[in-house]
Amino acid sequence: MANSFDLTGILRDNIRNLIPYSSARDEFKGEASVLLDANENAYGSPLDGNYNRYPDPLQQQLKVKLSGIKGVPPRNIFLGNGSDEAIDILYRAFCRPGVDNVILVPPTYGMYEVSAHINDAAVKKVNLTEDFQLNLEGIAEAIDANTRIIFLCSPNNPTGNSLHREDVETILANFKGLVVIDEAYINYARQKTFIQELTEYSNLVVLQTLSKAWGLAGLRLGMAFASEEIIEVFNKIKPPYNINQATQELALKALDNVDKVNEWIRETVSEREKLSTKLSSLAFVLRVYPSDANFILAKTTNPRQLYDYLVEKSIIVRDRSKVELCEGCLRITVGTPDENKLLLEALDEFAFAH
Question: What pTM was computed for the model?
Fold first, then answer.
């Protein structure tokens, strides 16, 4: 069931009335032999390439390439300096400081809350259930007249599981604000992306990234997919040249390697299952949670001791034992076969020593 969603009803007045900055590259589009409009260094750059020139402010070439891969028109794509930029813009566009609130469903990605505090938006928390699924009744009770955004992460970080699709659709169909689904780990999941639902739900924003499966964490390139109306809000607020020229060029090259990325995904999923099976057999591992991501959450009898032991072996995992509902848990990224072998050897040594 589609949602009757009114974007203007939740857009901040100052953003609605904002006249965005117009850069030289916004005002002129096309080819020219003499560019004297942007106060660039006309002599060139110490680097090979046109780095003396400002990049395309709307990254059109890159969006066209992504459009072919994702099956979404370029007008429905926003590119940000990591997904964190998109998250921050959502707060600045839709949450009046000191007035509006968002709903988070812990345990979840920590930047939603950090960005809320930076933008002075109140946070309402509705914990996931014991099996890390949505508490629909609790979410419904938490919503009030000033609730602007509900953030959902699926597959979820740090738990690794996907949220039940029908529960997410229930929220999309009934909530009158924005529903943001963060799919940073979707490439590793059995569940299909919500991108295909953009035409069904005008209040839907899907976040993805090139940092995980695509192996481009160092480029800091995040993606938001939404209605054209919402994307226009993103573009109105973002800095003029938020994605630099080098990132755009390198991302375009990377996107030619879909087959290689799919090979990495298959191997990661295979290694994930092997790692999960081995972890489950260890006496000090109480539970290995199902994962749709490139990491595993494992509940242990002595997380800090195990973490410190692995550090001594130059193996770094993430201690999540102080996170609500993740007591006693370590989050372990799935490495290469060689890295996973070293990890398992260290775990066997730990088991023998303890």
Answer: 0.96
